[in-house]
Design goal:
By secondary structure, the protein is an all-alpha fold. The protein has a two-stranded antiparallel sheet with strand order 1-2.
């Protein structure tokens, strides 16, 4: 009869199992080099855009939480205004940032900068759908770029 355990023991066992599976998966498969956070990692993103997007999100949450029809209509109008302001801020910041970048590319160091951008774009494009590891002679997975190049 003592076979039943408390829920605390079950949670501890479950957590240990999950941690073990994650650890083995990371060792075998590696970790994606993706960029978390959506646009926040973009080079043109700034505090002004962040503020406008946060205001838009707040307006949307009020819209979703509204109960009566009159309140919903008012929240929808506020959300539309906030959404338009966020889009305009993003457009202005992107236009300015790309304009500066194009000016930099026209200069003497433009060719070097262009190759840096191409290399960065290629690195960002890597994802889990691409082959990131191969096996060596012994059947072990090679995940490091240097090891894979040596194997090829």
């Amino acid at each position: 009869m003592g076979a039943w355990r408390s829920s605390g023991d079950a949670n501890t066992m479950w957590t240990a199992t999950v941690d073990c599976i994650r650890e083995v998966a990371i060792k075998v498969l590696g970790v994606s080099m993706g960029v978390p956070g959506g646009h926040k990692g973009d080079w043109w993103w700034n505090e002004v855009v962040q503020g406008k997007v946060e205001a838009k999100k707040a307006a949307y949450l009020k819209l979703v939480g509204s109960i009566c029809e009159e309140e919903r209509r008012a929240c929808m109008e506020r959300y539309k205004v906030a959404r338009k302001k966020a889009k305009m801020a993003i457009t202005e910041v992107k236009t300015t940032a790309y304009g500066r970048m194009y000016e930099e590319l026209k200069g003497k160091k433009g060719e070097k900068k262009l190759f840096q951008l191409a290399k960065l774009r290629e690195r960002k494009a890597r994802d889990l759908d691409q082959v990131r590891c191969i096996k060596d002679e012994d059947g072990r997975l090679l995940m490091e770029d240097a090891q894979i190049k040596r194997r090829w």
